[in-house]
Amino acid sequence: MIHRVAVLGAGTMGHGIAQVAAMAGYGVTLFDVDFVAVETGLQRIRKTLDKGVHLGKVADAVRETTLAALKTSTDLAEAVGEADLVIEAAPESMELKKRIFADVEAHAPAEALLATNTSSLSIGEIASGLQRPGRFLGLHFFNPVHLMQLVEVVHGPATDETTLHTAVQWVERLDREPIVVKDSPGFASSRLGVVLGLEAMRMVEEGVARPEDIDRAMELGYRHPMGPLKLTDLVGLDVRLGIARYLHETLGSEAFRPPEILERMVAEGRTGKKAGLGFYDWGSDA
Do 87 and 100 contact (CB within 8 A), yes or no? Predict the structure, then answer.
């Protein structure tokens, strides 16, 4: 039974996961190695909740109980020491994730579930150095976490059925929709979403249409809530580039070869909303 959750990484995905878990009534510890990062993550949660209250979508009482359920820490052993579920939301680096989970397994309870929020990296490879790989799986949330309903529950080759069942039930208690996916490069969502985004970039590169018109085509013609280029800006062009390189290497498909425009924009620091500039100019919203 899951009562206490530790979220590792206070960035865009981490603080969002911490927020929805706390809103669902779980005790949550938000961890990051940097004190400023942890405090920034907590401030972003407060800002999102305040906006929800202002718009009438979040009750004042829910805001208060959510904040009361949240703790922060820069001490990994303290953060995971009593956790029933540990979710890692660190950058998309295989070696980094392996190091994190080696440390987590040394300090978390033996019965705790361990999960990664990776959007594309191999669950089996991340778990390869663990003593208890049966307790490990992927929980891939989507950005912005507090608004998006889908969660990919990804089972690796060693993930046991009890772990998978418990994770699916937990996602449902967050009032989210889980889909169960086999460990495969890009899983379901990234594999489909990235190839669409890369093709949209090639269209910009070829002068087929402006970014906003390509996005509008998908939003109005195919009922996508957000066009592929605006979504790329939101996710981060650097993140998309890393995923595209990984999928191109692992799947061997030219559909995932990063377009030159993506390589160039990342090299120039135009990484999307977080930088203030990507395919769109985000200005003061950065």
Answer: no
Please indicate, yes or no, whether residues 267 and 204 belong to a single structural domain of this protein.
Answer: yes
* Residue 285, pLDDT score: 47
Under 8 Å between Cβ of 196 and 188: no
State yes or no: pLDDT of 286 exceeds 50: no
Q: What is the pTM of this model?
A: 0.86
Considering the domain architecture, whether residues 176 and 198 belong to the same structural domain is answered as no
Same-domain pairing of 177 and 226: no
Decide if pLDDT at 178 tops 90: yes
Burial class (CB in 10 A: 0-12, 13-18, 19+), 251: middle
- Do both 91 and 232 map to the same domain? no
Domain end point (choices 164, 182, 200) = 182
Q: Find, among 10, 1, 165, 186, the residue nearest to 87 by Cα.
A: 10
Percent of the chain at pLDDT > 70 equals: 99
Enclosing H/E stretch for 8: strand 4-8
Q: Does residue 70 share a domain with residue 9?
A: yes
Q: How confident is the model at residue 284 (pLDDT cuts 50, 70, 90)?
A: low
Q: Within a domain: residue 282?
A: no
Mean pLDDT taken over the chain: 95
CA 243 to chain centre: 13
Structure tokens at 169: 């039930």
Residue 125 pLDDT more than 60?
yes
Alpha helices in 114-259 (DSSP H): 123-126, 161-173, 189-205, 211-221, 228-235, 237-251
Alpha-carbon span 195 to 186, nearest angstrom: 10
- Res 143: pLDDT: 85
Please tell me whether residue 71 adopts helix, strand or coil conformation: strand
- φ and ψ at 280, to 5 degrees? -125, 155
- Print the domain residue range for 231: 189-277
Strand segments, DSSP code E, in 21-64 are 27-31
